[in-house]
Amino acid sequence: MKKIKYFYNTHTLRYEKLVTPLRVKLLRILGFVAAAIVTASIIVAIAFQYIDSPKEKVLKQQNDDLKQSYRVFNEKIRLLQQQMTELQNRDNNVYRTIFEAAPIPDSVRLKEMEKNKEVQLVQGMGETQLVAEMTSQLNNLAKRVAYQEKSYKEIDGMLTNKEKLLAAIPAIQPVANKDLNRIASGFGYRIDPVYKVAKFHAGLDFAAPQGTPIYATADGVIKEANYNAGGYGNHVVINHGYGYETLYGHMYKIKSKPGDHVKRGEVIGYVGSTGKSTGPHCHYEVHRSGERIDPVYYFSNDLSPDQFDRLLKLAAASNQSFD
C-alpha cells in the first residue's frame, strides 16, 4: 500500500496531504532517463574500447591475414628482383661480352621503357602505404623484365648472325708473317722516324718487300681506297660492321675500290712506302666503335699460344716506327 505523506501548514495550523506537482514529476522522470542514457553511453564506450565486436574481430583477422600475405608477397618480389639482377648481370657480363656488345646500364633500361610506354602503371589500387609500395616494386620489376626481354631478343639476333659476327671480327695478320719476323713497330708511344720524338703510334707496322700482298683481316665493305695526304699515303679502310673497321696504309698499289665486298684473306693491295713512310711496310690499325685499339689481340686465327706470346713481346719493344 502506497504511503501518504502529510505536512504541517503553518498558515492554516493543520496537517495537509502532500501533493507533488506534475511538472516536478516530469522533471524527475527526465532526469532519471538522462542519467540512464549517460551511464549506458559510458558503459558502451568502455565496452567498445576493450572488447571487440564480432564484426571488428572478423575485420581484424582479415587485416592480419592481409599483412601476412603482403609479407610473403614482398619476399617473393625481393627474390624476383634478385633473379632479375642476376639475369641482367649475366646479360651484360657474359652474353654481351661473348658478342663484344656494349653492356646496358639499369638507368637506360628504365628510361627506355618509360619512353616507349611498354609497361602501363598500375592505377586505382588505393592510397595505402602497403599498396603504394607494392605497386612501385611491381612497376619497376615489370619494366626491368620488359627491357630484359628486348635485350635477349637482340642477343638472339646475334646468335642467329653468329657466323657473320665471327667473320666480321679481324682475326689474321694483314701480310704473310708465319715466322713472325715482319713486326717492325708496335702499338703505343714510339720514336717518330721524321721528328725523332715519342709520338703515339696507333697500329702495327709490318715490314715487307714492296709488292707483298696485303690481305683483308675480316669480311667487310671497302669504305675508303685512295691517297691520304695526312700521312697514310695510299690506304684502304674496311668497314666490317658490328663497330669494327681496319686501316691499311702506305700501299704501293690499291687493288680494291670503295663499295667492294671483301672476304677475310682477300688481297686488297700491295705493300709500299707512300705517304709519311721511311721504308716499305704495311701500317695496320683496328678501330672498334671509333676507338683505335691494339691490333695484336686480333690475330686469333693465325697464331698458336706460343706464337702469340712471342708476338706480344715483339710488339711491345720500344723502337722507332716506320711512319
TrEMBL record:
Gene3D superfamilies: Glucose Permease (Domain IIA)
UniProt superkingdom: Bacteria
Keywords: Coiled coil, Membrane, Transmembrane, Transmembrane helix
Gene Ontology molecular function terms on file: metalloendopeptidase activity
Coiled coil, from the record: 63-90
CDD domains: M23_peptidase
Transmembrane spans: 26-51
One Pfam assignment: Peptidase_M23
Name this polypeptide is given: Peptidase M23
Organism field: Filimonas zeae
Lineage: Bacteria, Pseudomonadati, Bacteroidota, Chitinophagia, Chitinophagales
